[in-house]
Write a structure and sequence with these properties.
Layout lengths: L4 H23 L4 H37 L2 H18 L2
Length: 90
């Protein structure tokens, strides 16, 4: 992985804390809206984490393949991008 590992780990640890908080909230029968807001916050940080991972992939792997790769390698990387974008847009 090429992305900033320190940043990625910090974001994931924050998300882990949020998930643990969510579990406690549910166990304590907290208000649904509070739980929903916490879920949205957790989703947001996971999206940000994924964005950082993909940014590293684009800035290193994709560019390197475009500069040095064969036609087949480039086609494969472009297909990867399309598949990830399809998932992100769902």
């Amino acid at each position: 992985m090429i992305a900033d590992k320190t940043k990625i780990l910090r974001l994931l640890k924050t998300s882990k804390g949020q998930l643990e908080g969510l579990i406690k909230m549910i166990e304590q029968d907290r208000d649904c809206i509070e739980i929903s807001n916490q879920l949205l916050a957790c989703q947001s940080i996971l999206k940000k984490t994924n964005s950082e991972v993909l940014k590293g992939h684009f800035n290193h792997c994709i560019i390197e393949t475009l500069e040095k790769g064969s036609k087949e390698d480039i086609d494969e990387k472009m297909n990867e991008i399309v598949l990830v974008l399809d998932k992100l847009l769902k």
